[in-house]
Structures are given as C-alpha cells and as structure tokens.
Amino acid sequence: MAGDLREHLVQYFEEHHKLVEAGALQLLLDDHQPLVLSRELLERSEGGSPLVTREMVEAALALRRPPSVGVAARSTSSGSVVLEGRSFELLREGFEGPPAAAQPLVAYEALFHSRYRALTRMLRGRPQLPNLRPIKDLRSSDGGASVIGMVREVRETPQRHHLILTLDDDSGSLEALVPKGSPGARTVILPDEVVGLHLQFSKEAGRLPRVVALERPDVPVHRSMGRAPPGHRAIFLSDLHIGSRSFLAEPWAALIEFLRGRGPRPELAQTIDHVVIAGDLVDGIGVYPRQERDLAISDIVEQYVELGRRLAELPERLTVVAVPGNHDAVCPAEPQPSLPPSLAANLPPSVHVLANPSTFALDGVVVEAYHGRSFDDLIPAIPGATYARPTDVMKRMLQMRHLAPIYGDRTPLAPLANDGLVIDPAPDILVTGHAHTYGVDQYRGVLLLNASTWQSETEYQRMRNISPVPARAAIVDLANLGLVTADFSSGSAAFSFPGT
Ligand SMILES: [Fe+2]
Fold it and tell me: In this structure, what is the dihedral angle of CA atoms 138, 140, 145, 150, given to the nearest 10 degrees?
C-alpha cells in the first residue's frame, strides 16, 4: 500500500508541475494525511521552485493546523495508516474547520480565490494554453494569448446564438466570444467553473476576443491507479433514510443476511472488507414541507440511535465509512462537517464518520465520497441531464474537477478558506447518492457510482417526479474495479455482473 501511495504522491506533484525529492516524499508518507499536507505545500510554493524539498515539508509541518478530528488514525513505520488494523487511509476531508474570516463577503472571496488557485494549478503549463497572461496584461495587439478564469456569466447573442463569456481572474475580468458550433461551445459552460481560454484578438477596435480553445481541468488521461491485492472488496450504499416510514426494512435485512454469509454467494460476501455510505444516513426532521407525515421516528437523536442499531447488524469485521447528506443533522452548507461526537457516539466503533465530501483510500484504491446535493443545481443547468442518469453529471464534475461549482442556487456553499469541493486528487472511484437511483459508469478510468437508496418512494418525491431505484448495492473488487450489482429490492439477494 505504501508503494501505491508513493506513486500517487509523485504523480500528484507531477500534475502540478513539481518534482518531489526522496526525503521530502518519505516525510509526506509518514504524515497521517499525506495528500492534505501535499496540497498545503503546493499552495505555499505557488510560482516558486519546481522542486519540493525535505526542508519545505518540514516548514509546512511546523506551520500546519492541528489535524481534523473524526478518524482515529495510527501511522505505521512503513508510512501507511491503519485504522483498527484495517486498510483505510484518510486522504482529505472537504471540511477543514470554520471560515477564518468573520465577514461573509471576505470569507466568500477567500473561498473563490482558493478554488481559482487550486484549479489554475491544474491548467497552467498546458500546450493548449500558450502565452498565458493575467487578464489585466492582455493587449489586443497580442494576437493570440491565453487566460485562466472563473466564469461569471454566460449569455447568448440574440441573433446568431454565439456565446459571450464573462471571465474573472485575480487581476480583472474580460468578455470573450465563443462562436456557435465551435469546440468551446459544445459542452455547456457553467457559472463559477474555472476554465482556460486560448483567445484570438481582432485587429478591429471594439471587437471581443474570440475563444479558439477552451480547456477544463479534467482528469489526466494517463495516471497511476490505486489497486488492492486480490480478495478485497468494498460495498457502496447510500441514502439509508433511517427514521422514515418508507425505510426498506425487508431488503435491508436481506443485505445483512448476505453480508453475514447467510444468503446466496457467501464466498463473495466473505471478501467484502469495507462499507461506504454516501450520506442521508437518517431522514432528519424539517428537511422538506410536512416531512413529519413521512417519519416513523420523529426525534433526530432517536433516528441516530436506530441508525446505530441497524449498523450494528453488519458483521464486525467490516470497516464502515459514512459521510453525511442534506438530511443529516449537520450544517447543510457544503462541505459539511462530519457528524458531531454526540450523535456519532450512537454508532458502532467500526463506523468512521467523515466530512462530506471526503477522500480516502481503501486498500490503496482512492475513493471520493460526496452526497450529491449539487445534482439539484447541475441537472437543471446541463441540457439533457436527469436524476435517472446522475453518472452523466458526475463526468462533468470530473471535467470541472469540482463537485458543486454553482454558487447561490440550491446548494448552499460554506465560505471556508480552502475550497473542499475541488476534486483533488483525481479518485479511482467517485461515489454519490442523493438521486435515489442506481448508476454505474466510467470516465477516464474513474469508476462512477450512484449508490441507490434504502427508502421507497415518498409522497414528496412523487410530487417532484423522482422515481427511486432502491435497495441496490455496488460491490467493487478493489484489485481491478470489477463490479457486481446486488439487488435486494425483492427481499432477497439477486446479483448481476456486467455483460450478463
Ligand atoms: Fe436522500
């Protein structure tokens, strides 16, 4: 495992155009959150030396904040981190403490600067973006030049349907024309995403520069991927909604029977080491109008006590990783902190509660778990996107390297100093929930999972035209990302394999 992580770190720095010295690499590997520390280093060394030295890591360690709590991690001499003897490594929690600035406007400015810096690092140095300049230094006499900026506005010209982009960087803003039908106009450009533009300036005064190429941060085509030794699997679940009248108790019992080796395919169940739950652990209270009519347990603490009982039914050998969702009892602004200790205390000790989103490695395979609230903004904004196919939207998240770019709509964003919704590093598996459907796809080697729900259709969902695909679980072989879908919706387990 330490070897896999070593390779990941080297590649991570390469992606940011840095070379890491051996001594520095070892210090990073010895840290309990190597990728968090690496990111801090990149932020500090921005524009500086192309080398990451041992002294730089030592300086970063001396300055760093106390580690976030939530996971009891123990570093081993080999540099890997073991939780209670299981192969789990926390790489990064999206929530890193409350905003440093008290003034909301100042805090949001810091958040967007952080997003801009993080995504600019991914775009800088690309051959498709030659002659890269700050916006304030652009001159129409330049002919061709490139900029990296955050999209403030996209509007369409009334007659010819060209796009006019307004883009901001640290130095200023500009308007640029994306001609209709040009490559840059093919994929919808979303507000607040960070893009690189190669511009061509016109010799005619007063004409907008034309976008010749539009680059997104995206996932590298070639990268090393984390893989476990044979015989290790993880099962991905989401949206349990414990406390709801519509919780699917019978399918849940079938899942437990299977995992305990008392259902069909006990040999498959035996290889499962990890359970990942992508949020909405409980149904919550007051989440939508007149929710009380749908609740079997109307006390929020009692809902978590019941969640604890349900999770205690899982075999003890399993490591459970759970992030909250918009129904859970934590601040709804994203990134969300992990469950407070008072509620987490109701869960078995094998459950590790993390922030939403969080990135962690399971036997060397990097998983990013995000509940998926931003589907509520991205689906209406992306032509053709639907709740029935959330994995299409997840591809766009990877292209933007951001889970929830749009500010000021249905997904509240927390004004933290570091934008924890930037997807960094690129994961091997991206798992979401929220859509209450089941979806599997791939994008540039990343396995995309939308991990179903354990709640049948509620009145509220019927009203919003959401048809759930409940009681499915994705069982992933961590050695090769091969997948088995387990369907418990009939009250007993049925398995399907790709291509069968
Ligand atoms: Fe949900």
Answer: 50
Residue 298: how many CB atoms within 10 A of its CB? 12
Model confidence pTM above 0.90: no
The DSSP line for 239-268 is ---BTBTTB-HHHHHHHHHHHTT-SS-HHH
Q: Are residues 191 and 244 in the same domain?
A: no
Does any domain span residue 228? no
Do residues 336 and 208 both lie within one domain? no
Print the domain residue range for 33: 2-67
For 47-64, write each residue's pLDDT tens digit. Answer: 677 888 888 888 787 776
Start-to-end CA span in the chain (Å): 32
Rounded Cα–Cα distance for residues 197 and 166 (Å):
12
Which CATH number fits the domain that encloses residue 312?
3.60.21.50
For the cut 80, the answer to whether the pLDDT of residue 158 exceeds it is yes
Ligand 1 centroid to Cα of residue 265, in Å, is 29
- Once rounded to an integer, what is the mean pLDDT over residues 416-425? 93
75 — pLDDT class (breaks 50, 70, 90): very low
Gap between the Cα atoms of 468 and 466, Å rounded: 6
Is the distance from CB of 450 to CB of 437 less than 8 angstroms? yes
Last residue of a domain, one of 67, 95, 118: 67
Measured in Å, residue 289 CA sits from the centre of ligand 1 at 15
Asked whether residue 34 falls in the same domain as residue 163, the answer is no
Residue type at 49 in one-letter notation: S
Instruction: Note the pLDDT tens digit of each residue in 251-280.
Output: 999 999 999 999 999 999 999 999 999 999
User: Residue 357 and residue 324: Cα distance in Å, rounded?
Assistant: 8
Amino acid occupying residue 36: V
Q: Looking at residue 140, which CATH number applies to its domain?
A: 2.40.50.140
Where is the domain boundary, 50, 67, 84? Answer: 67
34 vs 271, higher pLDDT:
271
Pick from 424, 225, 245, 412: nearest CA to 326? 412
Could you tell me what percentage of the chain is helix, strand and coil, using 3-state DSSP and rounding each to the nearest 5? 25, 25, 50
What is the DSSP code string of 462-486? HHTT-----SEEEEEETTT--EEEE
Distance 392 CA to ligand 1 centre (A): 19
Taking the centre of ligand 1 as the mean of its atom positions, its distance from the CA of residue 437, in whole angstroms, is: 10
CA 154 / ligand 1 centre spacing (Å): 31
Tokens (6 digits) for 96: 């890193």
CA of 239 relative to ligand 1 center, distance in Å: 5
Question: What are the residues whose beta carbon lies below 5 Å from ligand 1 (ion)?
Answer: 239, 280
295 C-alpha to center of ligand 1: Å? 14
Closest by Cα among 115, 125, 114 to 47: 125
